[in-house]
Amino acid sequence: MDIFSQGNTMPLWCLLVLLALPDPTVSTNPGVKVQITQQGLEYGRQIGIAYLQEKLKSISIPDISGSEKVSPIGKVEYRLSGMRITDLGLPQSSLGLVPGTGISLSIGNAFINLHGDWHVKYLKFIKDSGSFDLAVSGLTIKATISVGRDETGRPTISSNGCTASVGGVRVKFHGGASWLYNLFTSFIEKQLRRSLEQKICPLVHDGISDLNPQLKTLNVLAKVDKYAEIEYSMVTPPSISNFLIELSLKGEFYNIGQHQEPPFSAPPFSLPPQTSSMLYIGLSSFMANSAGFVYNRAGALSLYITDDMVPSSSPIRLNTKTFGVFIPEISKRFPDMMMKLLLKTSTQPNVTFEPNNVTLQATGTLTAYAILANTTLEPLFILNMDASVSGNFYISGLKLVGSLQLNGFDMSLGTSYVGEFQVKPLHNIFMLVMKLAVIPKVNEYLQQGFPLPAIGRMNLINSKLQVHKSALFASLLQDYMLIGTDVHFTK
Questions:
Q1: CA nearest 85: which of 51, 54, 109?
Q2: Which pLDDT value is given to residue 9?
Q3: By CB neighbour count within 10 A (0-12 exposed, 13-18 middle, 19+ buried), where does 413 fall?
Q4: Mean pLDDT computed over 368-397
């Protein structure tokens, strides 16, 4: 097994996923932090208002019937039916943060126009009918949204409160005896006002609840490959200020189906307030080191190196003739044979973040084999190796993608089956092998990328990545990658 082999391969409410409340007893430090800025909330407001407007257009007004005494003819029975919305607008809206609580939504100066039919009966046998148009103005809606967490660690949302009030209602009747219906227009307007006010908030409640299935698309457990998955569940309640929302995610790699904790824990981790982008994602070095623990535990950090992995233009070949120049015993005992190298980590790699640089230190062994005529492998020697590589990372789609460059390595002889020899003369050969065969294979894997936390049909645009190291306390440094990005939801 090795991870380096060929082929390893919404609307406003969606943004509210970032507010999901976890079990308050959990005290685990996060490996990932996310901030939603005012720009992100504004984008959410625009999409959310468009969605809510479509939802409100589905208002179904039931028939209204009753009776009213109209002088001088007495009791008039009436019925309004077939009412449907012909136009609706939400020209003024705002989205606000309630520190420590949640989100407030306010809509003002909205309007609704309806068309329907009217029927009246008076003097016991006289009937009349026609149509009417209703204009509702000054409609105000105020709602508060709370968030929760289901048993899978995914968010749920609900409306915690809603009020709706109608500023003005004007009815214009068409057809029939206008002298009659104009006498009780004010009464009809009052009935329609009450009916609308009673209908709007349930629709707001439903509009919020209906989107919970979309929130279930949050990749709380994101599969990376056949070895690993990343957990993005919430570990602490969200921090809500007047200007941004910050949430903490577990951000830890695990072996698939085997969630064993590493022998180290995530240190305290914080992000400075940001404003330029809609969304900020901070990935701590703990997340990267948990990946090293997982892959090393799975035995996946190993690679067989064969001659066909070295470019044909290279003067260095993986055979006993090349190595026999430095270790004569090899060419003497195994003349004209091809060789194979096994590079394997002995402990988990250690990743550190420096300003605009990612460094990985790896300790392992390199075992050289001669390939005998019957294809069996004969061990020649084992070298202990300490290598240092630097990484460059960027965002592609919803993934973190990277590539490595070799800084250098040290070698020492561990075991020799061909007598004693000097390791230093082999340094240039192995440096070339690492650059021409190992690093390209690692980069081939890294180009597949690692999934970032995402929901629904979310896309990241205008993404920028920086690497930081800063002092959280005088004696504690924190290092992290910071992704600043805008967000776009597709339909």
A1: 54
A2: 35
A3: middle
A4: 96
- HSE (CB half, 13 Å, CA atoms) of 67? 10
Measured torsion, CA atoms of residues 321, 326, 329, 334, in degrees rounded to the nearest 10: -20
User: What CA–CA distance (Å, rounded) separates 226 from 317?
Assistant: 32
Cα(479)–Cα(473) distance, integer angstroms: 13
C-alpha torsion sign, points 426, 430, 433, 435: negative
Q: Cβ–Cβ contacts within 10 Å for residue 306, how many?
A: 13
Residue closest to 459 by CA, chosen among 1, 10, 6, 116: 10
C-alpha 29/C-alpha 32 separation (Å) is 9
Q: How far apart are CA 4 and CA 9, in angstroms?
A: 10
Q: By the 8 A CB rule, do 280 and 274 touch?
A: yes
Does residue 76 or residue 12 have the better pLDDT? 76
Omega within 30 of 0 (cis) for the link into 91 = no
DSSP string of 387-404? EEEEEEEEEETTEEEEEE
Q: Please state, in angstroms and rounded to a whole number, the distance separating the CA atoms of residues 127 and 132.
A: 16
Q: Which H/E stretch holds residue 144?
A: strand 126-149
Concatenating the DSSP letter of every residue in 101-119 gives TEEEEEEEEEEEEEEEEEE
DSSP track, 423-454:
SGGGHHHHHHHIIIIIHHHHHHHHTT-EEPP-
- Supply 420's token pair: 């004693």
Q: Outline where 114-236 has alpha helix (H).
A: 178-181, 185-209, 212-215
DSSP 338: B
Torsional sign, CA 113, 118, 122, 124 = negative
Contact present, 132 and 172 (Cβ < 8 Å): yes
The residue ranking higher by pLDDT, 411 or 178, is: 411
Neighbours of 19 (CB within 10 A): 23
Cα separation, 72 vs 489, in Å, equals 61
| Nearest residue to 465 via CA among 452, 454, 456, 474 | 452
Strand-pair partners of 102: 98
CA distance 66 to 76: 9
For residue 307, give the 3-state DSSP assignment.
Answer: helix
User: Quick one: pLDDT at residue 477?
Assistant: 60
- Check pLDDT > 70 for residue 4: no
Residue 21 has a CB neighbour count (10 Å cut-off) of: 17
Burial 324-354 (b: 16+ CB within 10 A, else e): beebebbbebbeebbbebbbbbeebbebbbe
8 Å CB contact between 268 and 470: no
Q: To the nearest whole number, what is the mean pLDDT of the chain?
A: 86
When pLDDT is cut at 50, 70 and 90, the band that residue 158 belongs to is: confident
